[in-house]
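Task: encode each sequence below as structure tokens.

Item 1
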Amino acid sequence: MGNQNNFVLNILKGLDIFSDLDDHALQNLSLLFEEKIYSQGEIIFEEGAIGNSMMVITSGQVRVSQTQGPQVEEALIILKEGDVFGEMALIEDLPRSAAAIAHTNVIIFEISCSHFISYIAKDCENGLKIVLKLARILSSRLRETDNKLKAFVNMSQWI
């Protein structure tokens, strides 16, 4: 168990979302993550499912997609090692906005919303650091989506 926890700790140290935490805070946080392994093509979570956790990719790639009817999938982004996904579930109790599918064989670390909230309640100072990083991640993704939408609208004026 010690080696597994050290592995989790080392992965978390390299992630931007946890970069402001000291070793003690990271150690406590690392105990809350669970390792999950998915084979290529396996669904990690479905679009519309109630989200209750955030994941960190430790190996492999994850495809985030939306479905456009049966058997039709539109990939939105391919995430890689070190990327975080499902993070919206930590701040809102709503259905997942997209599906997550193992693009390759993938290993993730998952933290449940309840463990995350418990951690923040026990360590407010470090919890605030994580929440601010999470807000920056979400803001960046929203800004990127906004730019794509603007480009699409501009292109559609010429059609």
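Item 2
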Amino acid sequence: MFFEVIYKDIEENKEYEDVINKVLTKCFEEENLQNSKLYITVTLTNPENIKEINKEYRNIDRATDVLSFPMFEKDELEEKIKNNDFEHEDVLGDLVISIEKVREQAKEYGHSFERELSYMLVHGFYHLMGYDHIEEEDKKKMRPKEEKILNDLKILRK
């Protein structure tokens, strides 16, 4: 298992977990991490909690859709992967997702809840892998990886 799901002030939901399992399994396969002993903690929550976390850790006083907290620097992780240095279980990082925000954005962008949640997961996963999208050059590396996974899973924009 590549992940653990934590529910913070929202109802547990098997559908969410099925999407998380499908998407993160594909992410781990795509990056050849199936045997890495790395795992991700995914916290599903509400706008109030994610706003609080965003303020505490990023000094941004507003709710957002997804927050990523990587445990490794990109080069450190690449070295670990290259040397297959996975003797013990290790946390790749933590994702915090606002389910309400996912629902709002799915409606706003005119696609399914599954598509929006899947995108949040893939997007967050690549942040944990050390990718970013602030600079255009970095965005050109991150976006195709995200799209490939979603396309491979046939979780397409409507």
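Check on item 2: DSSP finds six helices and four strands in the chain. The two ends are 30 Å apart (CA to CA).
End of task.
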